Amino acid sequence: MITVKDLYKSFGENGVLKGISETVEKGEVVVVIGPSGSGKSTFLRCLNLLERPTSGTIVFEGQEITGKRFDEDKLREKMGMVFQQFNLFPHKTVLQNVTMAPIKVKGQKPEAARKRGLELLEMVGLSDKADSYPNSLSGGQKQRVAIARALAMDPDVMLFDEPTSALDPEMVGEVLAVMKQLAQEGMTMVVVTHEMGFAREMGDRILFMDDGVIVEQGSPEELFGNPQNPRTVDFLSKVL
Ligand code: ADP
Ligand code: MG
């Protein structure tokens, strides 16, 4: 579904991604772990062109998206993204947050968008909050709305950048549960997270990033059970 080749990204003098080549298969759950500042967010943001790569190519569903004239809006319809911060519109209801983009961007009929929005809110366990405003929700509820909103565009892949890092501990589980359900339904996912339990249980493949490169990758058993690179060993000794 996604093929990344020799991806480099610099901000001025600061080289952040230093040659990443990676593929993501349809239906795969790829979990990216690594220390703060290693380039995980930049990598995800390059995948959906929130950042323009300095060099290298990204092919998504057979199309090179790193070419000059590629339509970024079309791409983002197919790649949903969930951030650490939820970025909900405060003056719209929960349901309006979920249905706005499908109506405005995809031209869905309001009634169809509403029906689908309610289904998605049910999926994330928030049917009863459809007419509430974001400010009345907990962090975990807001993040579940953000997931429903991304899914409303009917994406082919979902990118998650530390979706539980801003949450109080007691709300982490409810968000991970929604992500698990999505994974089990076969959604292709790239997930940056510090939740090693989720990585172990749901990851088809774990990538360990450090200093702008993928130092090591493997199945959860390989990477957590028998890490090969000293940097991986060192990182895991701090987080496990
Ligand atoms: P991670 O998500 O692994 O913590 P990031 O990808 O956020 O790492 O950041 C990696 C490096 O890139 C950091 O040194 C950060 O300061 C730098 N960086 C990220 N985004 C920008 C930006 N928009 N402008 C300048 N530097 C950036
Ligand atoms: Mg980050």
From TrEMBL:
Arranged from A to Z, the UniProt key words for this protein are:
Amino-acid transport, ATP-binding, Cell membrane, Membrane, Nucleotide-binding, Transport
PROSITE patterns attached here? ABC_TRANSPORTER_1 (PS00211), ABC_TRANSPORTER_2 (PS50893)
Q: Which InterPro entries match?
A: AAA+_ATPase, ABC_ATPase_HisP-typ, ABC_transporter-like_ATP-bd, ABC_transporter-like_CS, MetN_ABC_transporter-like, P-loop_NTPase
Bilayer topology? Peripheral membrane protein
* GO cellular component term of the entry, any: plasma membrane
Q: Where in the cell is it found?
A: Cell membrane
Q: Which GO terms describe its molecular function?
A: ABC-type amino acid transporter activity; ATP binding; ATP hydrolysis activity
Organism superkingdom = Bacteria
What family is it from? Belongs to the ABC transporter superfamily.
Q: What is this protein identified as?
A: ATP-binding cassette domain-containing protein
The organism is Bittarella massiliensis (ex Durand et al. 2017)
Q: What is the lineage of its organism?
A: Bacteria, Bacillati, Bacillota, Clostridia, Eubacteriales
